[in-house]
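Running this now, will post back.
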Amino acid sequence: MSNNENIQNFNNIFAVFPKYEFNHLKGNYKEIAPFIAASPYTSKDTFQNEEKNGIKKKTVASSVLTAGILALLLAKGFHGSLIQKLGNETMYYAKKGTDRTFNVLQAASNFTAVKDLLFDKIFRKNNITAKYAQNARNFAKKVVDGTLSKQYDKAGVKINDITSLVQKYNIKNIDEILKTQNPSITIKGVTKNLAEWREDLIKHSSELQECFNEGFSLGARQARSDLRDNLLKGLAEKIYRKLFKQGKWKNPDTYKAYITEVETRDVQKILKDNVTKVRKNVTNNIDSIHDNIKSELSKLKFSINPKDKTSIEIYNAVKKNLDEFKNCSGINETEARKIISDKMIVDIDKIISKISKGNMYSNHEKEELILTAEKIKLQLQTADKKGALENLMTVLKGLNSKEAEFNGKKVISDFQFRKFDNLSKQISSTLNQAADKESGVYFLKQAEMEVGSAATDIFSILFPIGVGAYAVGKCNNNDERISATLKTCIPLIGMFSTFIYGTTKMLAGAKNLIFSSISAFILNKFGAYIDELYKNYKISGSVVNVAKSEYTHVWSDLSVGINGKNR
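Update: finished.
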């Protein structure tokens, strides 16, 4: 593909966006075009206009897909060489363009919320359907609760493993050394004898177990679940009143954000603060803090208007301080963490003030920018504190250092420390994922259930299954029943199974139905193919003949494809 074609493709990608927003990008096309052209979703035919029957058409769907891919890059906080190639200004305006695509998706999500609300009101009017709605909610809640519990259970197992290692192996090794000597060892500027460090290991491992149980035991999670249910009570009526009694459904701005998510932000913040606090008591790893803040900063960066020079300068100061924060170590690590995180909090407050008071952004843009900035600030407020896991690892690392080597042997051997280090990383990763899920997708799923999503989602699946069963029952003979089963029933059962799987993964209602529908489509095509093979078998009466026939068809199609390409 020539460079001119690359540039043309890039022009057409942004044809779905307002042209005035991209006039300034003319000098940057050559920078971004190779990346877009290299995408498997991009081809010359995809974005160029087609002439058919004298009518000019555009493949808008493909353009939206590419815009979505670009938006995904932004949402994931991509940085590095790709961002340098594209340029900050280019990415900012590209993001503004993708907002149009997101508005369409948000409108679809709000349609789902409205559907759930109305059906929920209908279901509640009859005792039988009301019972069905409640059972559907209980079923869906049980599924997602089980998924979250498994994630927390994994972290609990790893914590048991690391505390067992401390008690079973390393305390025994230390006791062997203490039989002949009790040397002094300095760790992070603190000097204690080995017997005292031994007591610290026991204390920190016990604290680790206690902090986990306090924040993430079944009882602790149930207490948060009860709090969430109380805070979400009346959500359906609140959204219904806002949309229909206050007439918000007439306002286009209502559909620029998912209404269920917007109406529960305050509740979500309360629960997120709760989860964050107990999670940081267990683990507050400096690398995890750095990576999470860096990801949010990337989102903030590409939402700041390039003309807002003040906010950009403040952002650069925060970014520089974040890099320094990651390198905090040594005797004064805790103090250094606090000093640098306090600096960043002051700067984030400046950005929030500048954006909220200025007129450079729309109300919607202000809300999103401030929301991202507040997330960063929340993480920074406890960034100076170590969790129980980090306190334990500090002592273990010190006992694995050269300063803790006696008679050519370290108190904690390299082999043993690698075990501790691996377990520590697994605990941080697993627990962080579970905590983020609880205050993120899990919370949103619970909010959707409160609006009535479970009953309508399951009904949306069960209804076509009933239709499929009816279709099979109306068949006249066995061959027709096999055909209907392959092309109708199996795809519908697959759709239901995929829906259940999507629910366990906490996919939102609209996404889950799309995911399920795609699986049904694929199974339908596969079933139709198997049905055709079965019919050929009925005619020929030989599996070998059917296999030969299929082989001939495949080879023939392949030959035509190769020859056609050569031509």
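The longest strand covers residues 184-187. More later if anyone needs it.
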